[in-house]
Automatic annotation (TrEMBL):
Highest rank taxon of the organism: Eukaryota
Domain Amine oxidase span(s) in chain numbering: 276-732
Disordered as annotated region, ranges: 76-255
Name of the protein in question: Amine oxidase domain-containing protein
Any one Gene Ontology molecular-function term assigned to this protein's record: oxidoreductase activity
Length: 777
């Protein structure tokens, strides 16, 4: 146990859901169509429509009485993609088969680019790759779809950049139209109810055919990385996948579930670039839900949304790194099949007004040692201003890594304490605090230690720096995240039938008679100011993928949310201001490091600057130099004019890189974001919501929610994306259709850390049972 100090100077899953392979059951589906007859489970069904037209009828198979509406159901023999066909067992013989007419669609014969699919009561011809998906039919159009008994809607955020998605059984088409062609996408979606984003954590994502196509594309166009170092992020992540067989939600009959409209609305906010909302929408559309994603920004993408000036120069809301343990984001990029958008792992510099203090190496390029020992050995000579004695004062603090998560009560104790108080109690030196820990937290958690929860600080340190030697390695996007990643992701979502509706704000949540969310009201800004007429988006499930600021605005204007304790507590949470700056210089100049952290340049704000001429491909042929700079905890800087902020950035840059003193700024742009980033303040854990809430069909996503069983912690794009996938899984659990998204966890704890945690947990449990108080907490 470390001595106390009160002085500041001492400081996987069973078989997939039924996917029917008609040819496994009947031989050639083409032959069955030609013979004008389909046979399965002892029943004979003649396709509707003139003989020889190859028309596909929608069939409802149910053990309940016939329902006079378009229904879907499973039929045939379900097979498990991971098991031999012989292991498959037929579904129970249905009691009633009712033919329901759908619009005629010619069924193409099987081929390499078009195959037949029947799942959850759906037979469909899949368009060839490259063929445009059928146009979406608005649910308020001429062919209005019938309303189900249990409708729910996902909700966008209040006047703050928010994101919402709505989902229905067939992407973009009402059931009254009953199309048999499904828009192309990475997987053949089941006919699944629409959902909002929220979710569990495992699932198979794409069909076997799509996975084969993806592998062929990756073989033809491999991701190329710089030759000087292999980038682990670009390497395949192998993991076992398990599928989940969905079950009907409690209290909902199978018949009612089939009859529901199953739309999903997801709305996203500015937090972490919209990763949560996009993650939920992507998986739900992939599973066949009709999703509407509502975003307050004209350019969907939240804090990673990109804009271009009238001169065509790119401006992005902040530069964010992609860390070594971002396995799910790296997997998404591989799945999209796009050119690898990331740089190699890069070194970074930590600067003070006196010069370079610390250099952060690429740990994965060094010999791997047990974590903590590896970080110490490989940075031994890179701390230029901190003595070994100062660095050694951090060692007693490491015992907190074993203690703070030993029980829920322990976590709450640490959460009520500030990070600075914890540093003082465990004897961290003043020089280590001011020269390393404080600037690292200002740019890693966007607030100084005296305003941060000690538990959240330990979460962040463990995820980014301590769990494994290479965890601190970081790469950057070779262009704007919006253009390199979000644009292809949006294209995938829309190809799968999803709708993206930008420049709209969620202003109200509508609650149905059954106590579920029935929909949301959205409004568009008017040119003269204010918001326009409300538009109602009905939904069967809703995902709140908004940040704290957006959620607070929504709760303030929505009595249905304000009356719920979990949403009322959100009003006690805080968010942080940020500023993003981009400068164009008239000279081509180099910087020692492409990414840099500033310490002590502003009284209470953290700062960074990046040489985009070196990081981003579009600037590599520029005659001048392009610099991006960000300020966090920027409340004292927000009142300044753009010119004053640009002058600060230039002066900071000259201090670190004197060659810029003779360069002239020829263009610049300042973006200010009030309350845009999550603030993990002391005691905030108790007020942060879970992903589920008192509305059974509404779910939350974002890096600020708690109770996420995943290793990504703190302010993290990976955590935001993971919560979006989990929200999608929660929607699937609620509506009972589709496969869970497969979520990759962080690398397991190294043996010595796992042993230490287990031992400390056992000892702590014994001490607590004896009533012995913790000396320092």
């Amino acid at each position: 146990m470390a001595a106390a100090s009160s002085q500041d100077d001492a400081l996987q899953l069973p078989c997939s859901p039924p996917r029917l392979r008609l040819r496994d059951r009947m031989g050639s589906l083409e032959d069955a169509i030609d013979s004008d007859m389909l046979r399965f489970d002892g029943f004979t069904v003649s396709p509707l429509g003139p003989s020889g037209e190859g028309t596909v009828a929608w069939l409802a198979v149910s053990s309940f009485s016939p329902v006079k509406r378009d229904l879907n159901s499973d039929f045939g023999t379900p097979t498990c993609p991971d098991a031999p066909a012989a292991d498959s067992k037929p579904l129970p013989t249905p009691g009633i088969i009712k033919q329901l007419r759908a619009g005629p669609t010619r069924l193409k014969p099987p081929s390499e680019s078009s195959h037949y699919f029947a799942g959850t009561g759906q037979a469909a011809a899949v368009p060839k790759r490259g063929r445009a998906a059928p146009p979406a039919v608005d649910k308020r159009g001429a062919a209005a779809r019938s309303k189900g008994s249990a409708s729910g809607t996902a909700i966008p955020s209040a006047p703050a950049a928010t994101h919402a998605s709505a989902i229905s059984s067939v992407p973009g088409v009402s059931k009254a139209d009953a199309p048999s062609a499904i828009p192309r996408g990475p997987a053949m979606p089941h006919s699944v109810p629409s959902l909002a984003a929220a979710g569990a954590d495992r699932s198979g994502a794409a069909s076997a055919h799509h996975q084969q196509q993806q592998q062929q594309q990756q073989q033809q166009q491999p991701c190329k990385l710089p030759a000087r170092r292999a980038n682990p992020a670009a390497q395949p992540v192998r993991s076992r996948r398990r599928s989940v067989t969905p079950e009907a939600s409690p209290g909902a009959s199978w018949e009612k579930m089939l009859a529901s409209t199953d739309d999903i609305v997801a709305f996203k906010g500015t937090g972490k670039g919209g990763w949560a909302g996009f993650g939920a929408a992507k998986h739900l559309t992939q599973e066949g839900y009709a999703v509407t994603l509502v975003d307050g920004s004209p350019n969907p993408g939240g804090l990673s949304a990109g804009w271009r000036t009238p001169q065509g120069r790119a401006v992005e809301a902040g530069i964010k790194g992609f860390w070594y343990q971002y396995h799910n984001i790296f997997a998404l990029v591989r799945e999209l099949g796009i050119e690898w958008p990331f740089t190699d792992w890069e070194t970074s510099g930590f600067w003070s007004p006196q010069g370079l203090d610390i250099e952060a190496p690429v740990f994965s390029a060094k010999p791997r040692l047990p974590t903590m020992l590896g970080q110490f050995v490989h940075t031994f000579s890179l701390f230029r201003t901190l003595s070994l004695a100062d660095r050694a004062t951090m060692v007693p603090l490491l015992q907190c890594i074993f203690d703070y998560e030993s029980s829920p009560e322990a976590y709450e104790r640490y959460d009520r304490m500030t990070a600075r108080e914890l540093f003082v109690r465990y004897g961290v030196s003043q020089r280590l605090y001011e020269g390393f820990l404080k600037p690292l937290l200002l740019v890693g958690m966007f607030a100084p230690p005296e305003e941060l929860s000690a538990a959240s600080m330990l979460d962040t340190f463990y995820f980014y720096t301590l769990a494994h030697q290479a965890d601190f390695d970081i790469c950057w996007c070779k262009g704007s995240v919006s253009e390199r990643i979000f644009d292809p992701l949006i294209a995938r979502i829309t190809e799968q039938g999803g709708k993206i509706r930008g420049q709209r704000f969620v202003t109200n949540v509508l609650v149905g008679d059954t106590g579920t969310v029935a929909g949301v009201e959205v409004r568009q800004p008017k040119k003269g100011g204010g918001l326009g007429k409300a538009e109602v988006l009905e939904a069967d499930a809703v995902v709140f993928a908004v940040g704290i600021n957006g959620m607070q605005k929504l709760v303030s204007g929505c009595p249905a949310l304000a009356s719920r304790p979990e949403f009322a507590r959100v009003m006690d949470l805080r968010s942080i201001d940020a500023i993003a700056v981009r400068l164009w210089y008239d000279q081509r100049l180099k910087t020692r490091f492409p990414a840099n952290v500033l310490n002590g340049f502003e009284a209470s704000a953290g700062g960074t600057f990046f040489n985009l001429t070196e990081l981003q491909e579009e600037y590599q042929n520029e005659e001048g130099t392009v610099i991006a700079a960000d300020f966090y905890h920027a409340n004292q800087l927000l009142p300044l004019s753009d010119d004053e902020i640009i002058a600060k950035v230039h002066n900071n840059l000259v201090t670190c890189e004197p060659a810029f003193a003779g360069a002239k700024v020829v263009d610049g742009k300042v973006l200010k974001f009030a309350g845009a980033v999550t603030h993990f303040s002391p005691g905030s854990h108790a007020n942060r919501p879970l992903q589920t809430c008192s509305f059974p069909n509404a779910f939350l996503a974002g890096d600020w929610v708690k109770g996420v069983p995943h290793g990504a912690k703190g302010l993290s794009q990976e955590r935001a994306y993971v919560t979006g996938l989990r929200a999608a899984n929660l929607v699937i659990d609620r509506l009972g259709r589709g496969r869970h998204a497969h979520i990759r966890d962080t690398e397991a704890d190294e043996p010595h850390l796992a042993l230490g945690k287990n031992l400390y947990k056992a000892v702590r449990g014994g001490i607590d049972r004896l009533g012995i108080p913790q000396p320092f907490l």
